[in-house]
Each structure stands twice: as C-alpha cells, then as structure tokens.
C-alpha cells in the first residue's frame, strides 16, 4: 500500500476541515483505494509553518491555530524563509493549496502551485484565483510533468462541475450559463427579506461565520465574478478575468426594493450570466428580480445554482444546498482520489 | 489499487410522480435520505419536497431538461460520477421511474443488496453502419461478457423484432417499455425482464433523433 505525503498551504476553515476529513476517511482510503496519507507540511498565513516528513501532528496544529497560536513548534525543520522554500525543500506527493483568493492576480497561490508541479507533485486547489489567472500555464506544466492540476472545489464546492464537462458531457458545446454562484449574498438578501437592513444582515452574516471580516469581495460581486471567469475559462474555453465582467454588487438593494419585489411575487437575486457571442463570452454579475417561474427563485440560504445551456441540452441545472467547509473539503478529497486513480 | 470499484443498481420503482412517492420508495428500499449524495431529476423537480424529505445539505441536485435527449445520458453521468468517487449514492428520477445507484463503498457501509451492476454504458453514432452491427462492435469493445444480451430494449429506432438469426442478439428476449418516453423506466423494464427470466445480461438502447445511440448494459446479480 502506498502512503502519499500531503502538503497543505492554507489552514483556514477549509484546510482544517480537509485535515479532519482525511482522518475520518483513512480506513476507506486504505480498504477501498489501497492508499493512505500523511501530512508532511502545513503552511499558514499568520500562524507559521510546520514541516515534519514523518507526519505533522495536525490535530495539535488545529488546536494551536484555533487558539491563535503559531504552529512553528511542531516543525522538525526551522529557518524556512517562505512557503515557496518549504514547497521546494520538502518531499511530498501532493500540494493542497487553500490560501485566500486574490481576485486581481491569483498570487501567491499561482507560484505555490507552480513550485509544487515543478517539484513533481500533483497540485490541487479550492482557490479560484489560479484557475482564472493561470489555468493554461498550470495545466500545461502539469501535463509536462505528468501530474494533475485539479480544482473541483473552486466553484460550487463539492458539486463536480468541471469533471462533468471533462467526463459525462465531453464534446458538448457550452453556449452559456446563468446562476447564483455566491452563497453569502444570497443569504444576505434573504435576511433582508426577513426584515433586516443591509447592515444588520451583514453583521448577522459575520456573527455566524458566513460573511468575512471584510465582506466586500462578496457584497461587491467580486467572488461571483471570479467564479464566472473560472467557468468561462475552463468550460467555455474563453479566458476571462474578473475585471472583464460587467459587475454590480448588492449594496444598492434597499428594503423598499425588496418589499416592492415581494409585492409583485418576485425576489432579488445576485445573478451571474455568461453567453457565448462568436469567439467572445459576454458575462455579467448583477442583482435581478426573478419571478416564480425562474429556477433561481427557490434557491434559498447559502445554496448555489447554475443552469448550463449547451448545444444538446437546453438547460441542465445543478443545485448545491447549503454547502460548508466540509463540502469543499470533500471536493478536495475527490480530486485526491481522482489524481491517484488517473495520475 | 483494489479492484472492487463499481457502480451498483440498488432499487427502482415506477411510482415517482411526487416527492411523497419517492419518499415511500426510499422507505420501502430501507434507504435513508441522508445517505443520498446526488439527485438527478429529469423534468420538473419539487425541490422543497425533497428538502423536506431530509436530503442532506451538500447533496448535489442535477435538474435535467425533459424529452430533448436520451435519459441514458443521465444514467451514464451518474454512473461515471460514482466510478470517479464523486458520489456514493445517486437517486435518479423522472415522472415515470426512480432508480437508486450506489458505489461499492456505500454498498458495504450500509449493507445494501445490489440488484445489478453495469456491464457497459456508452454512445456512438451509427450513421455509417446498421444499428445492430455497430452496437455489437461497440459492446465487444466495452464489455465482451455482456455482448450477447438475454434481454433487449431498443427505442427511438424503426428497428423491430425479430432480430436476425446469426447475430449476437438472436437469443435476446425483446423487452417492452410501458413508458417509452422514459429511459429510466426502460432500464427498469430490462432489469425486471432479467429477474423474471432468471437470466443475466440485459441491454437498453436509445437512439436520439440526431442518430446518436446510447446504451446501458446491466448485469443482474
């Protein structure tokens, strides 16, 4: 049985959920897939780096991070200047990159993934930045090194959007899509429907961990835009950057607008659309009123929805209900199994 | 790697008109809604009804358009997803049938008793060769052991029985699908025919209007 050594870059909610999921699934990985895993390195943004080729004590790492403390004492190697140096100098089979998304450049995640592929690792990420800003480059590097660059969790968490078009729906031409891709704003609008002001909704979202300390990426539509860009780049084959998308957030939605829509039997949603126009893709993220005949109307809470229009299927809709970090972690695990099987 | 990976047919029903029907089907099949990790619904979907049933958060729901393509595409998508390890238990629905599929992991974990497994599931365009000839050669590549089926259903084609002697299909019993618009019901009918006859290999075939032929080969367990 082979033991794969994993390196985790980013140890926030998703990274920690992934470590816990791996532990829970070890028996299944051994008995059903004939491999096991150990974590040889963990790198965080603010809590240090722990490297131990024999296996980092990840449970202690979780405790330390959740108490705001450094994981450096868990390391058997010291003096590492950077995460890139850690990647280049620590033997591992997989890099799992889950650092915060950089909408503008995709960095530093791109450099981490590139370094891992150059060192002969498979590179797996839930980060949309590298998918949008370096998809071709990273895919080509992975192919050259005979390794996999996988990112199934980058859009709609555990819903296998990208593999759907690689596997069961190959050779279909995607003409466009429409959906709700940002779950945070969907929840905020729903809270406003329940009577909260925009500010109260944001505060509530922060209190339950749905909204980031700086919620502007969600509220101003950047998160939705980068997901649209990722789908266009990978599935439609037309590279798009978030700033090429006509983007409007939800700041301007008022309780009066919510009430007016309700009186007409409609709801406000932050709707993402992309449509092929010759060799281009015209994409937009904007609040829209939707009526009950729209599949978007019934998407509640933190659920997501996307409907694809292809040359053979007039409308394939995919719904993911109330995902969380565990769902994203499951997508990372599916990528791991996929890479082992097909790597 | 262990050679046990597979996708299994766990149960089916022809009563799938409402969420209540499907709930009753799950109860009868001793399947907990919480075990289901994906739903493939062809046609309209009562999302609220399924949410109320206890389908878990994180369950991925695919809402497929109705009657513009073969439902075999949906079966193939679900089977591939199971084989790739993306899903452990899938519920497939249209207005005429519901089918439960599971991975080998789910079968072991929940102590399920599969009815069948998939010999082959594929598609080809038969414009250059007669349908049966192309079907035989495709099956020979995809799944030689199921290339001579005992039960056969062909829809969307003008081909009618009897199948010519001397072909791989001469011994196949011709299956009737009571719901010709439903590929799911067609697959259920083939499996039921295998159970009735006590034989092993069944094949459901559907030709889309554009000529693309999709087939699903089932092996009774």
Annotation keywords:
heterodimer, A: 343 residues, alpha/beta, Rossmann fold, Dihydrodipicolinate Reductase, domain 2, 2 domains, six-stranded mixed β-sheet, 12 strands, 39% helix, 21% strand, globular, B: 221 residues, Peroxisomal Thiolase, Chain A, domain 1, ten-stranded mixed β-sheet, 6 helices, 28% helix, 28% strand
Topology overview:
The complex is a heterodimer of chains A (343) and B (221).
Chain A: E1 2-9, H1 13-33, E2 35-43, E3 49-51, H2 58-66, H3 83-89, E4 94-97, H4 109-118, E5 122-125, H5 128-144, E6 149-150, H6 161-166, E7 174-180, H7 183-193, H8 198-207, H9 216-219, H10 222-234, E8 246-247, H11 255-263, E9 267-277, E10 280-290, E11 304-310, E12 316-320, H12 325-342
Parallel strand pairs in A: 1-2, 1-4, 4-5, 5-6, 8-10
Antiparallel strand pairs in A: 2-3, 7-9, 7-11, 9-10, 11-12
Chain B: E1 7-13, H1 19-28, E2 38-42, H2 47-53, E3 60-64, H3 72-83, E4 89-93, E5 98-103, H4 104-109, E6 116-125, H5 131-142, E7 151-155, E8 173-174, H6 183-197, E9 201-207, E10 212-220
How would you describe this protein?
The complex is a heterodimer of chains A (343) and B (221). With 343 residues, chain A is α/β, with parallel strands linked by helices. Chain A folds into two domains: 175 residues, Rossmann fold (3-Layer(aba) Sandwich); 147 residues, Dihydrodipicolinate Reductase, domain 2. Chain A is built from twelve helices and twelve strands. A six-stranded mixed sheet of chain A has the order 3-2-1-4-5-6, with helices on both faces. In chain A, a hairpin with a 5-residue loop joins strand 2 and strand 3. In chain A, helix 4 runs parallel beside helix 5 and helix 5 runs parallel beside helix 10. The longest helix of chain A is centred in the N-terminal third of the chain and has 21 residues. Helices cover 28% and strands 28% of the residues of chain B. Chain B contains six helices and ten strands. A ten-stranded mixed sheet of chain B has the order 3-2-4-5-1-6-10-9-7-8. At the A-B interface, helix 1, strand 12 and helix 12 of A face helix 2, strand 3 and helix 3 of B.
């Amino acid at each position: 049985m082979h033991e794969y050594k994993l390196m985790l870059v980013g140890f926030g909610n998703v990274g920690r959920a992934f470590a816990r999921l791996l532990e829970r699934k070890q028996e299944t990985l051994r008995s059903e897939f004939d491999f096991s895993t150990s974590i040889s390195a963990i790198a965080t943004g603010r809590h240090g780096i722990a490297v131990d080729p024999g296996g980092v004590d990840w449970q202690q790492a979780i405790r330390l991070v959740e108490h705001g403390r450094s994981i450096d004492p868990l390391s058997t190697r010291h003096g590492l200047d950077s995460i890139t140096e850690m990647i280049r100098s620590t033997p591992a089979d997989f890099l799992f990159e889950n650092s915060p998304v950089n909408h503008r450049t995709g960095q530093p995640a791109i450099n981490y993934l590139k370094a891992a592929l150059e060192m002969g690792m498979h590179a797996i990420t839930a980060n949309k930045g590298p998918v949008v800003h370096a998809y071709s480059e990273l895919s080509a590097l992975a192919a050259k090194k005979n390794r996999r660059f996988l990112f199934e969790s980058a859009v709609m968490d555990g819903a296998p959007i990208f593999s759907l078009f690689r596997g069961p729906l190959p050779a279909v031409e995607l003409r466009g899509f429409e959906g709700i891709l940002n779950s945070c704003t969907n929840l905020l609008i729903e809270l406003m429907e329940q009577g909260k002001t925009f500010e109260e909704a944001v505060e509530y979202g922060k209190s339950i961990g749905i909204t980031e300390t700086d919620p502007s990426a969600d509220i101003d539509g950047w998160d939705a835009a980068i997901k649209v860009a990722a789908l266009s780049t990978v599935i439609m084959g037309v590279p798009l950057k978030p700033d090429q998308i006509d983007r409007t957030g939800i700041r301007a939605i008022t309780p009066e607008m919510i009430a007016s829509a309700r009186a007409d039997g409609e709801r406000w949603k932050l709707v993402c659309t992309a449509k092929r126009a010759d060799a281009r893709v015209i994409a937009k993220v904007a609040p829209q009123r939707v009526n009950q005949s729209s599949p978007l109307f019934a998407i509640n809470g933190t659920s997501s929805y996307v409907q694809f229009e292809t040359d053979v299927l007039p409308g394939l809709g995919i719904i993911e209900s109330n995902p969380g970090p565990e769902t994203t972690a499951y997508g990372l695990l599916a990528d791991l199994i996929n890479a082992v099987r097909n790597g | 790697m262990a050679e046990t990976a597979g996708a299994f047919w766990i149960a089916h029903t022809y009563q799938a008109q409402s969420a209540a029907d499907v709930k009753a089907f799950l109860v009868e099949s001793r399947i907990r809604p919480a075990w289901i990790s994906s739903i493939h619904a062809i046609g309209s979907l009562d999302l609220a009804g399924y949410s109320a049933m206890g389908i878990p958060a994180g369950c991925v729901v695919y809402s497929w358009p109705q009657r513009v393509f073969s439902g075999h595409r949906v079966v193939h998508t679900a089977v591939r997803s199971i084989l790739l390890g993306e899903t452990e238990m899938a519920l497939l629905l249209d207005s005429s049938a519901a089918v439960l599929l599971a991975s080998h992991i789910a079968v072991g974990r929940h102590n399920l008793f599969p009815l069948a497994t998939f010999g082959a599931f594929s598609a080809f365009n038969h414009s250059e060769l007669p349908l049966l000839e192309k079907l035989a050669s495709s099956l020979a590549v995809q799944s030689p052991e199921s290339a001579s089926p005992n039960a056969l259903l062909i829809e969307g084609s003008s081909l009618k029985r009897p199948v010519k002697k001397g072909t791989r299909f001469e011994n196949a019993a011709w299956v009737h699908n009571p719901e010709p618009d439903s590929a799911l019901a067609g697959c259920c009918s083939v499996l039921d025919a295998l159970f009735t006859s006590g034989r092993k290999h069944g094949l459901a075939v559907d030709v889309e209007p554009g000529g693309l032929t999709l087939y699903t080969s089932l092996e009774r367990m």
